Amino acid sequence: MSPILKEVRSLFVSLRLTVTLLALSIVLVFWATLDQVHLGVWAVQQKFFHSFFVVEKFGEMQVPVYPGGYLIGGLLLVNLLAAHVYRFRLGWKKTGIWITHAGVILLLVGELVSGLVQKDYSMRLDEGQTKNYSESARHNELAIIDASDPNFDEVVAIPESLLAHGTVVQSPKLPFRVVPRGYFPNSEIQMRSQVPGAPPSPATSGMGPMVAVTPVEVNYTEDGHNIPAAYVELVGTDGTLGTWVVSIGLGNPQTFEYAGKSWKILMRPERHYQPFSVTLEKFSHDIYPGTDIPKNFSSKIRIDTPEGGPGREVLIYMNNPLRYAGLTYYQASFDTDHTSILEVVRNPGWLFPYISCGAIALGLVIQFLIHLAAFAKRRRA
Question: How many domains, the chain?
Answer without folding.
Answer: 3
